[in-house]
Design a protein that fits this description.
Amino acid/polyamine transporter I, 17 helices, transmembrane helix
C-alpha cells in the first residue's frame, strides 16, 4: 500500500509539474493582466473541466491496462496513431519552450547565457533517464520541485497583497470573459500529453485494474489540486501587482510579476521557480510523449530511455536553432486544448467497449460531464480559430 501511495503521489506530481511549465506561468500572468480579478472565474471553470477530463482518462487507462494510443486504436482503428502523432508533435513543441524557460531561469539566477542554461538543463534531464531506476528518480525530482514552486509562489502571492475579496467575488460573478483564456488554460493544464503523464506513469508502475480505481481517483484529483494551487497563487500575485496600477512587461510577464511584488529578491525567486517549472516539464513532456509511440514497435519499447534522451536532445537543438518566443507558448497551450476533445472523446468511446475495459461500468455522471467538456472545448477551439485570436 505504501508503495502504491508513493507511486500515486509521484504520478500526481508528474502530471502537475508537467502542466506547470514556462507556458503555464506566462499564460497565467498574461490573462490576469487582460481580465483582472475575473480571471478567477476562468480558473474555477478550468478546474471543473480539468477534473472531468482527468478522472475519465485516468480511470479508462487503468481499467484497460493499456496506454492511451492502444486504447484509441482498439476503439477506432487508426485513431491511436493520429492521437499519438498530435501528442508527440505537441509535446516536442512544448519541450522547446520548456528548455527555453529553464535557460531563462538559470540566466536570472546566475547571469549565465540562456543558451548555456538550456544545454545545462538538457544534460540534467538526460542524466535522470540514464539512471537505471529512472522512474523513482523522476518521481522524487518532480515532487521536490513541485513543493519548492508552491512554497516560493506562496511567498510572492503574500508580498503582492492581492485584493482577496474582489478576487473571490469575480471568481463567481465575472465582469469579463474570454473563450481564448478557457481554451488555453485548460489546454495548458490537461491538454495534449499532460493529462496522460500521470496515468502512463501508473501503467509503468503496474498500478492497474478496477481494484485500484479509488486510489487512482485520489491521484487524479491530487494532480489537479497541485496544478490549480500553483495557478491560483500566481493569479493572486499578478492581481496584487496589477491592482496597484503596475504594468507587466510583456517581454516576460511572469518575471515582472515577481519583480514588482518582491523586488530584486522576487526576481531571483522567479529564476528558481521558472527553472523548477521548466525542467520538471521537460522531464514530463519527454517521458509522456515517448510513451505514446513506444507500443508501436518492439524496438521502440526496448530502447525507450534512449529515445527519451534523443527527444530531449532534439528539443535542445531546435531551441538553439530557432528560439522560443512568448506567443508560441500561449499558442501551444491553445493547440493542446484542441487536442483534448479528440483524446477525451476516444477514451469515453472506449469506456463502453467490453473488449477494452471488460466488465467495468463507466459512471453515467462522468460520461455526461465528459461529453459536455468535449463539446465545450471543441466549440471554443473553433471560435478561437475563426477569430484567429490564438495566432
Amino acid at each position: 500500500m505504501k508503495r502504491n501511495w508513493n507511486v500515486l503521489i509521484g504520478a500526481a506530481f508528474l502530471m502537475a509539474t508537467s502542466a506547470i511549465g514556462p507556458g503555464f506561468l506566462t499564460q497565467t500572468a498574461v490573462f490576469t493582466a487582460q481580465l483582472g480579478a475575473s480571471f478567477g472565474f476562468i480558473i474555477l471553470l478550468s478546474i471543473i473541466l480539468d477534473i472531468v477530463a482527468q478522472l475519465n482518462i485516468w480511470r479508462v487507462i487503468i481499467v484497460a491496462k493499456k496506454p492511451a494510443q492502444q486504447i484509441a486504436n482498439q476503439a477506432i482503428p487508426g485513431l491511436g496513431y493520429a492521437v499519438a502523432t498530435l501528442v508527440f508533435i505537441g509535446g516536442l513543441a512544448f519541450n522547446i519552450g520548456n528548455l527555453a524557460g529553464a535557460g531563462l531561469g538559470l540566466n536570472v539566477l546566475f547571469g549565465t547565457d540562456v543558451s548555456y542554461g538550456v544545454l545545462t538543463s538538457a544534460m540534467i534531464s538526460i542524466a535522470i533517464f540514464i539512471y537505471k531506476e529512472a522512474g523513482k528518480v523522476m518521481d522524487f525530482f518532480t515532487k521536490m520541485l513541485g513543493l519548492v514552486m508552491i512554497i516560493l509562489m506562496s511567498y510572492v502571492a503574500y508580498t503582492s497583497s492581492p485584493p482577496l475579496s474582489e478576487a473571490l467575488i469575480r471568481s463567481v460573478v465575472p465582469s469579463k470573459f474570454s473563450f481564448e483564456a478557457v481554451l488555453t488554460i485548460v489546454g495548458g493544464t490537461v491538454g495534449g500529453y499532460i493529462t496522460f503523464s500521470g496515468a502512463h506513469r501508473l501503467l509503468d508502475a503496474n498500478v492497474l485494474g478496477k481494484e485500484n480505481l479509488g486510489a487512482v481517483n485520489r491521484g487524479a484529483l491530487s494532480a489537479i489540486g497541485i496544478a490549480s494551487l500553483m495557478r491560483i497563487l500566481l493569479f493572486l500575485a499578478a492581481l496584487g501587482v496589477i491592482s496597484k496600477g503596475d504594468i507587466l512587461d510583456f517581454q516576460n510577464p511572469p518575471a515582472s510579476v515577481f519583480r514588482l511584488a518582491s523586488g530584486q529578491i522576487g526576481y531571483k525567486l522567479f529564476g528558481l521557480v521558472m527553472w523548477s517549472a521548466a525542467i520538471s516539464s521537460v522531464i514530463g513532456s519527454a517521458y509522456t510523449s515517448v510513451s505514446f509511440i513506444k507500443t508501436f514497435h518492439p524496438s521502440i519499447n526496448r530502447n525507450n530511455q534512449v529515445i527519451i534522451i534523443i527527444f530531449i536532445l532534439i528539443s535542445c537543438v531546435s531551441y538553439l536553432a530557432v528560439g522560443q518566443p512568448i506567443k508560441t507558448l500561449i499558442f501551444v497551450g491553445a493547440l493542446n486544448g484542441l487536442i483534448l476533445p479528440i483524446s477525451l472523446g476516444a477514451m469515453i468511446f472506449a469506456a463502453y467497449k467490453r473488449n477494452i475495459v471488460g466488465d467495468y461500468k463507466q459512471p453515467l455522471s462522468l460520461t455526461i460531464a465528459a461529453i459536455v467538456v468535449i463539446i465545450l472545448m471543441a466549440w471554443m477551439g473553433l471560435q478561437a480559430i475563426a477569430a484567429l485570436t490564438i495566432f
